[in-house]
Amino acid sequence: MKLDKNDVNRALINENVDVVVNFLNKYLKEEDKNNSLCDCQECLMDIIAIALNNIKPRYRLICRHAHKEPDVVKQIGTEVREAVIKAINFVKMQPHH
Predict the structure, then answer these.
(1) Any idea what DSSP says for residue 66?
(2) Distance CA 92, CA 37 (A)
(3) CA distance 1 to 95
(4) Contacts of 78 (CB under 8 A, 6+ apart)
């Protein structure tokens, strides 16, 4: 059997995408009180891409439910927080616009 990239894209998900997006939304709501971060789509997508490129991907089949142990969730959260904060600082200093 031969797979093409569309088959793979429909079957796999990187669980970190949701975690990164959720953390960034929480940061924008709770921590960026003075609106120092540009919240245009380009800057936010840059932050997400940079953060995801700096953490270990966690792919799984879409049809399978993920079950994470509490220690793993805590580790992922810490890793994601550090990656997103670094990405935010990078984009603040070097936005594409």
Answers:
(1) P
(2) 6
(3) 44
(4) none
Q: Considering Cα of 37, then 86, then 48, then 26, what sign does the dihedral take?
A: negative
Q: Could you give the CA distance from residue 36 to residue 33 in angstroms, rounded to a whole number?
A: 8
Which helix H or strand E contains 5, and what residues bound it? helix 5-11
Side chain identity, residue 93: M
What is the largest distance, in Å, between two alpha-carbon atoms of the chain? 54
3-state SS assignment for residue 61: strand
Q: 8 by DSSP, 3-state: which?
A: helix
- Nearest of 10, 18, 73 to residue 48 by alpha carbon: 18
Model confidence pLDDT, tens digit, residues 62-79: 876 666 655 556 678 889
Kindly report the pTM of this predicted structure: 0.83
Tokens read off for 76? 């992922």
Q: Which amino acid is at 21?
A: V
pLDDT in tens, 53-62: 999 998 888 8
